[in-house]
Amino acid sequence: WTPHARVCHGHDLTLRAFIAQHYRYGRGAARHARSRAARGRGGLFADMSFRWEPGPLLRLAAASGRPVSIVALLLGWQLANTAGFVREWVAGTPDGARRPVPGRLVP
Q1: Ramachandran region, residue 43 (left: φ > 0; alpha: ψ -120 to 50; beta: rest)
Q2: Rounded CA separation 35/50 (Å)
């Protein structure tokens, strides 16, 4: 361990890969929310303020020189994340078992 280490983390994503990644993040968030609720650690909206605080993001977009592109990506991120969350929430069951989703094979 060194306190001066620098780590650069990034992904070269196409728009399609970006949307797919955030869709999967939404699915994971639904599983996490269900797991927390099952353990009595909070429900669906327990930590929502952590997930979406638009002010800093919109200021960053305005300062970027490409605000329309940045806002479009932010919107895509939120829509994909929400779609993944809803899909997983609907497909899951209260006991944590997984129901098959039409058109998908369940391992």
Answers
A1: beta
A2: 18
Residue 56 to residue 46: CA distance in whole angstroms: 21
pLDDT at 95 over 50: yes
Is 22:81 a contact under the CB 8 Å cutoff? yes
Cβ–Cβ < 8 Å for 21, 11:
yes
Instruction: State whether residue 66 is helix, strand or coil.
Output: coil
Which phi and psi (to 5°) does residue 98 adopt? -105, 130
CA 24 to chain centre: 7
Neighbours of 2 (CB within 10 A): 5
pLDDT in tens, 39-86: 887 766 666 655 567 777 788 888 888 888 888 988 999 999 999 999
Q: Name, in order, each residue with C-beta under 8 angstroms of 76's C-beta and a sequence gap of 6 or more.
A: 15, 18, 19, 22
% of the chain with per-residue pLDDT over 90 = 28
